[in-house]
Write a structure and sequence with these properties.
The chain is an alpha+beta fold. It has 3 domains: 71 residues; 132 residues, no CATH class; 53 residues, no CATH class. It has 9 helices and 5 strands, in the order αααααβαααββββα. Strands 1-5-4-3-2 form a 5-stranded mixed sheet, with no helix packed on it. β3 and β4 form a beta hairpin. α1 runs parallel beside α3. It is flat. The two termini are 36 Å apart.
Length: 286
């Protein structure tokens, strides 16, 4: 929805505002227009600077106007995509692309890199199953016990997201090991393959550890990252009552309850779904 612009503004200012306002989120557009209309009108009609100074100020305000609109748009994107599975997958894809481009530079061409990747992939395929087994066994000791089963579609979404994220982590660690081990083929060509496999094992263990931890710290419904942990219960009261930390879903789907240590009160982390309308039950309308 377009808003009328005051006539005292110059044609350049009105044209600039008309185009740049499309960058501003619709919910903030009217207030943004009023603020910048007043700023530009004050510069032209109430400023006491020389003409050269007004021209310089006009350029500065125009640049600031565009940057302000871009910041509002990027901040809206940040709030919308922060912690989402889309941002996680896109970040991993971006890192894989950057690692591939860096490898192309190191190996001076795609043909040489393709031959080298095929050789190293055969070595890493033998090590990958053992690394995955160790990571799964380590992660199973810190599982999350669901209180409610939820919809099956949520379970399928979690498994698909975790599988895709893990595959991208494996690809990224492989590309990183190839990049890091490249100088070894010049300094120690006889041990370069061994170093590449060693780097792959280390990077993969760290990457899979992060992948499992990240999966546990996400909502079981929307897969967004949970809020910052909050302490619940007095510390070191494990023999008297439960205590630990809780992380709530920012969309209100539930919370993750993590005990401080395994006790008879709680032996594992638990995901608790919020019943629809739970917030209205806690805060009834007066």
């Amino acid at each position: 929805m377009s808003h009328p612009l005051p006539s005292p503004l110059s044609l350049f200012d009105r044209t600039l505002l008309r185009f740049v306002q499309n960058l501003v989120p619709a919910s903030e557009r009217a207030e943004w227009l009023r603020a910048w209309q007043a700023e530009l009108w004050h510069m032209h009609h109430c400023g006491r600077t020389r003409r050269a100074g007004i021209f310089r100020l006009s350029i500065d305000l125009s640049i600031g106007l565009v940057l302000d609109a871009l910041w509002l748009r990027t901040d809206r994107w940040r709030l919308r995509f922060s912690g989402t599975p889309i941002l996680c997958i896109a970040s991993l894809l971006g890192l894989c692309l950057f690692s591939t481009l860096f490898a192309l530079v190191l190996y001076a061409g795609g043909h040489v890199l393709g031959l080298h990747l095929g050789k190293q992939a055969e070595h890493c395929l033998f090590a990958a199953p053992l690394i995955i087994f160790v990571s799964v066994a380590r992660a199973s000791s810190n599982h999350v016990e669901p209180i409610s089963t939820g919809k099956r579609i949520h379970w399928l979404n979690r498994q698909f997201f975790f599988a895709l994220k893990t595959l991208l982590v494996l690809l990224l660690t492989f590309l990183l090991s190839v990049d890091v081990s490249r100088p070894g083929y010049t300094l120690m060509p006889n041990f370069a393959d061994l170093f590449q496999i060693l780097f792959f094992v280390i990077f993969t263990l760290l990457g899979l550890r992060w992948s499992f931890h990240d999966q546990q710290q996400r909502c079981k419904h929307c897969l967004r990252s949970l809020a910052t942990p909050a302490r619940v219960g007095p510390p070191s009261y494990n023999l008297l009552e439960w205590n630990g930390t809780e992380q709530i879903c920012k969309e209100g789907h539930g919370l993750l309850s993590v005990p401080e240590m395994e006790t008879s009160w709680r032996q594992s982390s638990q995901w608790i779904d919020h019943i629809p309308g739970w917030d209205r039950a806690l805060h009834p309308a007066h």
